[in-house]
Amino acid sequence: MKARVHIFFKESVLDPQGSTVASSLQRLGFSKVKEVRMGKVIDLILDHQLPEEARKDVAKMCEKLLVNPVIESYRVELLEK
Q: Taking the model in full, what pTM does it have?
């Protein structure tokens, strides 16, 4: 089973990289871009049979290591390999 974790800064946290990309896109003529939020994606290959067990384990991984809960939020997506 494959799990994909999407991690982003919380809305209340300044995203300087996203702001830079938004400004660059606007200078390139994409004037309808108002805001960009950058994030990261982590793919995990798991040896789980039950999706709910996998989701619980990935949530624990996020809480213990992968995500800084003070400034980041995350979403777990389970995929077929």
A: 0.86
